[in-house]
Amino acid sequence: MQQESKYQIEVVAPKHRHMSNWDMFATWIGANANNGTWYVGGVLAACGLLTALKVIVASSALSYLCLSLVGFMGYKTGAATMSLIRGSFGVRGSYVPSFVNLTQYIGWTAVNTFIAATSVSYLLHDLVGWPVYGKPGGAKGLILGIIVMSILHLLSVSVGQRSVQMIERIGIILVILFVLWETVVVFQTVSMHDLLTWRAPTHLHMTAGAGMDTLAAFNLSWVTAGADFTRFTRKRSGATGMPFLGAFTGLFWFAFIGLAATISIAITSGAYDPNNSDPSTIASRLGLGVLALLVIVLTSMTANAVNLLAAGSALSNIFPRIRLRPALWAVTIIATLVTLIPLVMGSFLDAFTAFLDYIGMVLGPMISVMLVDFYWRHRQHYDVNELASSKGQYWYHHGINWIALLCWVLGVVIYLLLKQLPWIATFTGATFIDMVIIAVIYMVLMRICYPLTAKQG
Predict the structure, then answer these.
(1) Is the pLDDT of residue 61 over 80?
(2) What residue ranges are annotated as transmembrane (predicted)?
(3) In sequence order, what are the residues at sequence separation of 6 or more whose Cβ sits closer than 8 angstroms to the Cβ of residue 289?
(4) What pLDDT score does 78 carry?
């Protein structure tokens, strides 16, 4: 712990780092081998199979390069992501990105919980005859599922970071077996030729640019949790290579299965409805049975173990006096309430799309500022003691780097403007172009307003 208790941060010393390369790989493949990835793959089906696969590869590679860069920051310093972001936004200024991180990880917990609760409603239908969610009276099964999942999450986070490691080690085996099973079932139903030639109805078609932004919002969400886990690894390769390989493998595999399964159902049923992209509906229609639904519930726990730890870390950065475990309990309870929002809106797809739009426009510029500050401005070195100091170089102006906040707000505006340009909306998406623009603006403004001394550099 640092000397100034008001702004203290937790730093993991090398002797206390216990995660192996396999643990790190399992953590990140488990983070993406889940319901949300499956669902977003189904949403990308509107692009068509070939375009969707190109989007998955391009957007994921760029996003997880950022994950590796943040992962190295955690390995180098031993500090969590929201502690490290103090270096760019300022000790007090970091509360803004911490709040963004808090909201997005609570949101992702709610997304995965809702999908898992849908599986519980299907299980209750098979076991006791309750109507499934989406049918008259189906809400009671969903609400019971939300309660069950929230209790499981509370039990999980009560053990702390070790529980994440345990869940990932056990869950990854079952997840791999399940996805192999579904892969076989999908390709017994339709051929690759059928998948490649299928096209979504014109009014539901999604452009490659829209797909890039949708998946970038999904992928970049993990970047702001990168250092939270890599600070527990002993090896540099575990902090950089393993997060990239694990996250990319989990994303590609599960998104592809969600994509292929959604298209196969559209082909066999003769109708495409993106609202039916959730894993429980797909598993039920493919006849995968109760075991598949139980694995869907498990994958929710593997993903939400990461989500809740990241949300708890963000809450602890905003309110340093709150210890991590109470913070984890708090965010779990809040996430339970947020999970009920799609019931109020009447459509999970509408709530999910609105959530992706929000995180897509706020995360890109925030990550860009953070990476440029560490790798260019400070040449891969932060003084960890000064990250908790009200007198050090990261205090800026009353604890806030207004240049970083200005660039973040400007990045949100530029993102919204770029999305209006036809070529960008159709082909490239706005997210990564916005990140490059903000990186350049931040470099120029910081060179003018905060020139580094030799000691700081």
Answers:
(1) yes
(2) 38-57, 64-85, 105-125, 137-158, 170-190, 244-267, 287-315, 327-349, 355-376, 396-418, 424-445
(3) 283
(4) 93
d(CA 130, CA 126): 8
CB-neighbour burial class of residue 217 (10 A; exposed 0-12, middle 13-18, buried 19+)? buried
Residue whose pair of structure tokens reads 């426009």 in the numeric block: 361
Amino acid at position 9, single letter:
I
Q: For residue range 137-173, what is the model confidence (pLDDT) as tens digits?
A: 878 888 988 988 888 888 777 765 555 556 656 666 7
Contact in structure between 161 and 272 (CB atoms under 8 Å): no
Q: How far does CA 408 lie from the centroid of its chain?
A: 19
Is the pLDDT assigned to residue 454 strictly greater than 50?
Answer: no
Contact (CB, 8 A) for 415 and 209: no
Q: How far apart are CA 109 and CA 336, in angstroms?
A: 8
| DSSP 8-state code for residue 162 | H
Please, are residues 132 and 245 in contact by the beta-carbon 8 Å criterion?
no
Bridge partners, 400 (sequence order)? 397
Structure-token pair, residue 235: 């090896």
Tokens 């808090």 correspond to 102
Assign domain 20-351 to a CATH class: mainly alpha
pTM over 0.90: no
